User: What shape does this take?
Amino acid sequence: MKKVEAVIKPFKMDDVRQALSDVGITGMTATEVKGFGRQKGHTELYRGAEYVVDFLPKVKLEVVVTNDQLDTCIDAITNAARTGKIGDGKIFVTSVEQVVRIRTGEQNEDAI
Assistant: This one.
């Protein structure tokens, strides 16, 4: 099993959720986060004062999938989140040793 973490632009959230749903991946966690990479931030003007916004709003999605679903999941996220502009985001994949569904006690692939 793998945990896929994707940091994407907030306005792409619905597109990514729909793309994952279309390929049969329905369970996910979404968190509003702030960060920057090459995009670096920008300068804004507020009440006549200029200030730098270093951390930009992003959405972090977390999805646990079986090994067989991994490539499909990555492709769905990549295609739905891509704008072709800087700041589209990143996908991180890590191994998951165990999953337990609290309600039923199901474990591992049965619990996904």
In short: The two ends are 9 Å apart (CA to CA). The mean pLDDT is 90.
